[in-house]
Amino acid sequence: MLFAHFDDPVTHPSHQEAWQLVERINQGDKLTYEEFRFLIAHLHASQLPHLQALAVQKRKAVYGDQLFIRGLMEISNICHQDCYYCGIRASNRQVARYAYRYEELSAMINRAYDKGYRTIVMQGGENEHFEHRQFCTFLRNITQQYPNLIITLSLGQKSKESYQDYYDAGARRYLLRHESADATHYAKLHPPKQTLASRMECLTNLKAIGFQTGAGFMVGSPYQTSANLAHDLLFLQDFQPHMVGIGPYMHHPDTPFHDASDGRLEHVLACYALARLIVPQALLPSTTATSSLHPQGRLRALQSGCNVIMINLSPEEQRTQYSLYHNKTYKGDESDEYLSLIADDVAKAGMEICMQQGNHSAYIESKIIKE
Ligand code: SF4
């Protein structure tokens, strides 16, 4: 069972061997799949604080104490895909579907810019509601109006040409979580028409085009084993994404997985810390799912190497309709009105809020993006 040993006492030298693997990653060594599998199978709960401390050290070495704030706009909950775990999957007829009009999106962006946001994340289900050319024109207008605003898109799988059009229109980051890097596990979470191969192709295309590219996965999703997680960590090591989105699996009552248990916080924290060591330069958000899972989720994520928080800019009445999972933090701390409350956790984590673009360090160094 996944991470079952977290409940066992430290009785075996294998825990020490697992720690040696952590130290090797920390020194920049690459691990094999078998080594990742061993590490996950033998890391002990008592080692988690040490792992978190290493991750914080690494984050400080690369990014200092800055916590980058992104403004999140959930632009539509219409989706033609049917991921078994997702509350807004096409088959869920309980959802009131919405999509913002362009003038509403522009108003939200103008307001966010005036408040100091320099990264906007536009997230939505996979759909054709936004006609491609019109959407690209909208993007181009925004990026011309605000040359120092970074637009991040998270709109699912598209053709390489569509991604290129987004890039040409000025978008510079794209988030596409892979959810599971093990094809057999991926197939248990998605209908047959959605394949891991097509998702990986999208990620490869995004990176080749020049996007700061985000991948990531759920922790504790149905059927997940430590072998599956080893694939995820190996993938992070090989692909070196610029952003890594990790969060617990959270069940939703109107999905085929409605009675599956939610992921566990310690497992998510361990994955954050390992991700920080495996991809030191990654922009690593403390995800909303982690805050929804546990009242201290966000603080503990920051204490595990995370350095990004997304603030929901969508109007409150719309947030409830973007229900990817049960108990999502709709109007809690992670909405625009509560930025000051987040400051409390940020201070406790010894970090400071940064509203600037907060690019991946490789992009700053190469001056691909002017801040
Ligand atoms: S996870 Fe994304 S692609 Fe899958 S059903 Fe939900 S919104 Fe659609």
Automatic annotation (TrEMBL):
GO function term, MF aspect, one: transferase activity
Chain sites annotated for binding [4Fe-4S] cluster: 79, 83, 86
Details of cofactor binding: Binds 1 [4Fe-4S] cluster. The cluster is coordinated with 3 cysteines and an exchangeable S-adenosyl-L-methionine.
Pfam assignment, any one: Radical_SAM
Required cofactor(s): [4Fe-4S] cluster
Keywords assigned by UniProt, alphabetized: 4Fe-4S, Iron, Iron-sulfur, Metal-binding, S-adenosyl-L-methionine
UniProt signal peptide: none
Residues bound to S-adenosyl-L-methionine: 179, 199
Source superkingdom: Bacteria
Domain Radical SAM core span(s) in chain numbering: 65-290
Amino-acid positions noted as binding (3R)-3-methyl-D-ornithine in the UniProt annotation, renumbered to this chain: 154
Name this protein carries in UniProt: [FeFe] hydrogenase H-cluster radical SAM maturase HydE
Name of encoding gene: hydE
